[in-house]
TrEMBL record:
It comes from the Bacteria. Pfam families: GntP_permease. This is Transporter, gluconate:H+ symporter (GntP) family. Keywords: Membrane, Transmembrane, Transmembrane helix. The chain crosses the membrane at residues 23-42, 54-75, 130-148, 154-175, 196-218, 224-244, 265-285, 291-308, 315-331, 337-355, 376-402. It comes from Phaeobacter piscinae.
Length: 403
C-alpha cells in the first residue's frame, strides 16, 4: 500500500508528458509508424492512406449528413407531450433508434417523462445502439456488409429488437435500484397541443413507411424511387421533411451543423480505415483470429470497441472509428456477420462518462439533484455496463443455440 502514491504520481507524470492529441491525429501517426516500421516505402504508405480514406466514405456521408440534419432540425422543436411519463419511457428506444441520436431522443421525450427520466435515458441509449437504422446500419456499413446476404435491413431490425428488449429492461432495473429517490420535486410541463408529438415524429413515420415499401416492392427500375426505398434514401427523405417542419430562418443553421459534424466524423473514419489497412499489411489476421473461433472473435470485437469508446467518448465517433479497423478481422475469422455487428454495438455501450455529451445531458436533467459526481458516474456508467453485459450474454447464448 505504501507504493500506491508513487505509482499514481508516476502515472500522472506519464500522462502529463504525453502529447495531448486528438484521436484522429494519433491514428494517422500510428498508421505512418506502422507503415515505415514494416519496411514500406513512402509511396506505399501514402497508398495505404489513400485506400483508407476512399473506403465507403461516400456511403457514410449519405448516412451521417441526413442523420445529423434530422437531429439538428428536431432540436429546434420544443416537444411537450400529453402522454404520461410511462408512454415517453416506452417510446424512448424507438426514438433513440429513429433519431439516430440518444441526446436528441432524450431531449425530445424528457419533458413528458416526469419521474421516469432515467428510464427514458437508458431506453434512448439502448435504442440508438441496437435498433436499425442507427447503430446497426452504421456498423454494417463500416464492415462492408450493407446489401450482403444475411445482413438485410429486416434481419438487422429483427435482431436489434430482440436484443433491445432485455438490454433496455436491464438499464431500467439498474436505474430503479441505483437511484431510490423519486424526483418528488419534479414538475410536469404543461401539455402541448394535440398532435404535436405526432407531427414531430412524422419524419420517422415517413422513413419507416419507405423502408417497409422497399422491402415489399423491391427494385422498380426508377433510380430516384429505388434510392428513396433504400435506408440511405429513406433517411434523406426524413431529413428533408424535418427541415420543412423547421422555421425557415433556422434551416441553414441545421445544415451547417450537419456538415460540421459529418466532416469531422468522415476524417475519423478515413484515419481509422487507413490504420486498419496498414495494420493488416503487417499482421496476418488468420493467425490472430483463426477460423471457427466465433465466440472468441465476438468477445475480442466487444473488447476492442470498449477501448475505442473509453478513449473517444462519443458513440457515433466510436462506430465510425471501430468498424473499418474491425472489418478485416470479421472477414478473415469467418464469424457470423450479424453477430459481429451487434458485438460492436454492445461494446459501444461502455461507458457513459464525462467525455460523452449524453452524460452531461442526463446529468443536468434527470440527475440534477445529485450532489456527488462520483455517484452520477456510478449510476450512468453502471447502467451502461449492465446493459452491455446482459446484451452480450444474450448474443452469445443465441449464437450457441443457433450457430
Amino acid at each position: 500500500m505504501t507504493d500506491l502514491p508513487s505509482t499514481k504520481t508516476a502515472t500522472h507524470d506519464l500522462k502529463r508528458h504525453l502529447p495531448d492529441l486528438p484521436l484522429v491525429i494519433w491514428m494517422v501517426l500510428l498508421t505512418l509508424a506502422l507503415g515505415f516500421a514494416g519496411g514500406m516505402g513512402a509511396d506505399d504508405v501514402i497508398a495505404k492512406i489513400n485506400t483508407g480514406f476512399g473506403r465507403a466514405l461516400g456511403e457514410f456521408a449519405l448516412i451521417l449528413l441526413p442523420s445529423f440534419t434530422l437531429a439538428a432540425a428536431l432540436s429546434q422543436r420544443n416537444v411537450g407531450s400529453a402522454a404520461a411519463g410511462r408512454t415517453a419511457a416506452l417510446a424512448s428506444p424507438l426514438a433513440g433508434g429513429g433519431m439516430i441520436c440518444p441526446d436528441t431522443a432524450y431531449a425530445a421525450l424528457s419533458p413528458a417523462a416526469g419521474r421516469l427520466k432515467l428510464d427514458v435515458a437508458f431506453g434512448s441509449y439502448a435504442g440508438f445502439k441496437l435498433l436499425y437504422p442507427a447503430g446497426p446500419l452504421i456498423v454494417a456499413t463500416g464492415l462492408g456488409m450493407t446489401g450482403a446476404a444475411g445482413a438485410e435491413p429486416v434481419t438487422l431490425l429483427i435482431c436489434g429488437v430482440l436484443l433491445t428488449l432485455p438490454v433496455w429492461a436491464a438499464g431500467v432495473i439498474w436505474g430503479r435500484f441505483a437511484r431510490v429517490d423519486s424526483h418528488a420535486g419534479s414538475k410536469r410541463p404543461a401539455d402541448a397541443a394535440a398532435g404535436t408529438l405526432l407531427i414531430t415524429f412524422a419524419p420517422f413515420l415517413l422513413m419507416t413507411g419507405l423502408l417497409i415499401a422497399g422491402g415489399i416492392i423491391g427494385s422498380t427500375g426508377w433510380g430516384l424511387v429505388d434510392f428513396l426505398l433504400l435506408p440511405k434514401g429513406a433517411l434523406t427523405a426524413a431529413a428533408v421533411l424535418a427541415l420543412l417542419q423547421t422555421p425557415s430562418g433556422a434551416r441553414r443553421g441545421c445544415l451547417d451543423s450537419a456538415v460540421r459534424r459529418t466532416g469531422s466524423l468522415l476524417l475519423v473514419i478515413g484515419a481509422a480505415s487507413a490504420l486498419g489497412a496498414a495494420f493488416t499489411g503487417l499482421v496476418t489476421l488468420d493467425g490472430l483470429v483463426p477460423r471457427g473461433s466465433g465466440m472468441l472473435t465476438l468477445v475480442a470485437l466487444f473488447a476492442l470497441t470498449v477501448l475505442f469508446k473509453l478513449a473517444q467518448g462519443s458513440s457515433m465517433a466510436t462506430f465510425a472509428a471501430i468498424a473499418p479497423v474491425a472489418a478485416p478481422i470479421v472477414m478473415t475469422s469467418g464469424v457470423n456477420g450479424i453477430a459481429a455487428v451487434f458485438a460492436i454495438c454492445l461494446g459501444s455501450f461502455i461507458a457513459i462518462l464525462p467525455n460523452d455529451s449524453f452524460y452531461w445531458l442526463v446529468r443536468r436533467d434527470a440527475l440534477e439533484t445529485e450532489q456527488s459526481e462520483a455517484r452520477v458516474i456510478r449510476i450512468l456508467t453502471g447502467g451502461a455496463v449492465v446493459q452491455a453485459l446482459v446484451g452480450m450474454a444474450v448474443l452469445l447464448a443465441a449464437l450457441a443455440i443457433w450457430p
